[in-house]
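Table S7 (text form). Paired inputs.
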Amino acid sequence: MNFQGLSQGGAGEINYFNKGQPVDVLGLKRRELKDFRRRIQFMFQDPFGSLNPRMTVYDIISEPLVIHEIGTAQTRADTVRELMRLVGQPDTPDRRNKS
């Protein structure tokens, strides 16, 4: 299985360095793999093609927090507002992605 579980791998290894210590990703057990997945994400090559214009900027940023059940609705909202502030974006929750 590959590190995201999308397909079976044929051979090789995937090592992830967590706080300077190598971790064999393919050897992780179910719970360890779930914890690992919380720390990684796919990086799409074409951000305009991968962003859904029907979703608000707030929805796009908060989606991983919701999927992984991180925090409460209020703490997620606070986190998203802070992230938007850090990158110089207005924290208007209904602002749409213009792709």
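Next pair, protein 2 of 2.
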Amino acid sequence: EELFSQYDKVIVDTPPVSAVADAIIVAKKVDGVLFVVASRATNVDTAQAVIKSLSDSKINILGAVMTRLQRKDYRDLNYYYYNYKYSDDQE
């Protein structure tokens, strides 16, 4: 609680959810989690089970990060671009 009162953002790194229960315990005490997966190393079934476990535990998944991408992996990815417009106008 002390860290949250002193800083805008606090990042906590935990062991993998699939390895130990610590990650779920910590995740319940924060505003949300980033789901990090390693390209070509994380089994799809394991990733889906982890997402289900997080969801079942009512943990807010903020997004996902894929690590260890290799150049040849880029051709298999689809990129979507969105245009956002920010305005001070209140309509």
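The helical segments are 2-6, 22-27, 44-56.
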